[in-house]
Amino acid sequence: VQLVLDHLPPRYSRALEWKYLEELSVDEIAARMQCTPKAAESLLTRARDAFRDAFDAIRKAAHEVNS
Question: What pTM does this model have?
Fold first, then answer.
């Protein structure tokens, strides 16, 4: 998980870490990012999508190496 977070754009990784590791609310994330809660929600959606894509790519690459 940390490997994927390290390869995401910094705004994405920070938002995901704040949401899922620090358990901050969307309002708290918005305040830290100096944006509206709606913008923070959109950012989290894009960050989750990017995380999922990167995680799947790493998992696929690892599977190919082990096959």
Answer: 0.89
